Amino acid sequence: MVYTPGRGAIVLAAYDPDPELFARQIGSLRSQTVTNWECVITVDGDDATVRRVLKDTAGGDDRFRVLADGERLGFYLNFERGLRAVDPGVSWVALCDQDDFWYPEKLELLLPHLAGAALVSGQARLVTYPGEDVTGRTDRRDLGPAMTLLNNQFTGSLCILRGDLVAPSLPFPRMSTRAAAHDHWIAALASVTGGTRIVDAVVQDYVQHDNNVFGDPSRLGSGSPLAAIATAWRSARAFTERYEGSSDPVAMLRMLFRVYVGWRQLVAETVAARTGDPSTQIRGFGSERRFWPTVRLLRRARSNGHVAPRFVAEYLASWVAGVLIGGRSRTRA
Question: What is this structure's pTM?
Answer without folding.
Answer: 0.88
